Amino acid sequence: NEKSEQMSEHGQLVTPGDVVAEDDSGYSRGHGTYSIDGELYASVAGYGERVNKLISVVPMRSRYHGHVGDVVVG
Question: Would you state the pLDDT for residue 1?
Fold first, then answer.
């Protein structure tokens, strides 16, 4: 799919409802996407990101989600 090929390391700006890839193209559905009738759509506004065969959308704005090992100040 042309859109999935355009996604670089930094991603392509997408809005909810944009087609980011076709399911039959071999890409897997990641966070921020959903699948209808063989196509992957963005569910949030953000940057499309492709890592190997996984396509996800990283939201432009989101709350901080802490991870094990993060330093907490305050």
Answer: 47
Across 5-31, average pLDDT: 78
Burial class of residue 59 (count of CB atoms within 10 Å of its CB; 0-12, 13-18, 19+): middle
Q: How far is CA 22 from the centre of its chain?
A: 14
Residue with tokens 């670089």: 8
Sequence-ordered list of residues with C-beta below 8 angstroms from that of 42, at least 6 positions apart, any chain? 14, 15, 16, 17, 18, 20, 32, 33, 48, 57
- pLDDT of the residue at 4: 47
Is there a contact between 19 and 25 (Cβ–Cβ < 8 Å)? no
